[in-house]
Amino acid sequence: MNKTYQLELVDNYQPGYSLAQGFYKSDEIYQKEINNIFLENWMLAGHASQIPEHGDFFLFEFDKESVIITRTKEGKIKAFLNVCRHRGSLICLEKKGNVRAFTCPYHAWSYNLDGELLAARLMNDDFDKTANGLHQAHVECIGGLIFISLAKDPLSLKSMQDDLKDTFDLFGFDRMKLVQQKSYPINANWKLATENYQECYHCSPSHKEYSKIHALAMSPSRLERYREAYLASKTNTIRTTPVDLYFDLANEGDEGYQYGRDPLLEGMKSGTNGGKAASMFLGNVTDYDGGSSEFMVGPVSFFLIYNDHMVGYRFLPLSVDTCVCDVFWFVHEDAEDGQDYNLDQLTWLWDVTTQADEEIIVNNQKGVDSHFYSPGKLSEMEDFQQNFLNWYLKALKK
Ligand code: FES
Ligand SMILES: [Fe+2]
Questions:
Q1: The pLDDT value given to residue 4
Q2: Span 43-141: which CATH code?
Q3: Ligand 1 contacts CB of residue 109 (under 6 A)
Q4: Going by CATH, does the domain composed of 157-397 fall within 3.20.190.10?
């Protein structure tokens, strides 16, 4: 595929339809996505509770990139490219651990927790160690959530932090801990996974467990009536302000973000089997009000906030036709396993739902690979996906 053909695919996109096959198979488009999206936008890397002590680290990896997320002696969270400044070897081979310094296994150059080159064996006296520190990635913490950007000039997160400050305080974003992270590798292009997350048209046929708890699986007109009744009801005690600045609705120079609150089905308290309570309340929440919130930052990081726990979703490409979905479960930092929550009950809903998603996404890729696939008409329930597609096509053209 040459460049002209690729740009033609973007220009030939018909709004209201799914993408052409080339978007899910072309190496050239995939490389453009890595450059224009994954090296530009903010992504959830993990949580501060994964690295409580200085020298703790974990790796954040996608495509051909590996980033070390660590805590310095001063307690600051930093991110470095896992690429030695000598001849480029990976430095950290373990996915997580604790170190006093990062020492390259190849020729033993050694870097401190701030990424500065400490020692380079047998190099000449005129070798400038200060010019050979590790490449740094930008880090922004939203409460304990660690976001990174590999961009030279990252998009701003300031208006998101200002708009949602009260919401983050209410749900105690700085008083949570990560209690489970599961990776679900998917044999499909990353967009099929994120597009699937962005629409609930498939919820009713594909997620019977989810559809018994959440109202979002309803048809748009029924959901609208149900949502209005919920917002007007006395039980709705969490009055947060929705923000819709996601994807193509984002302001120029800002990372896209969205926050909203939706009703659960009658009698449901949380995202568990039977809608039962899952853990102690988050932050300043004091009751179950029959709702749950959604929050997203950037193109691949999504959160579902129940009154008593939060679930994070992140989609990352591994190659043109493989990706990984990581699911994170958070509870109040004081909650104890076995006492305040049960890990199996806490993780049940989004584990069964993600396993079902993996299957439908893989089947989607198989059909898209066929010679007979052609873009199909999107439904009203896929309008969020349409926003993603509008934004995505614009990002490819940059
Ligand atoms: S490549 Fe790291 S020390 Fe040589
Ligand atoms: Fe799904």
A1: 54
A2: 2.102.10.10
A3: yes
A4: no
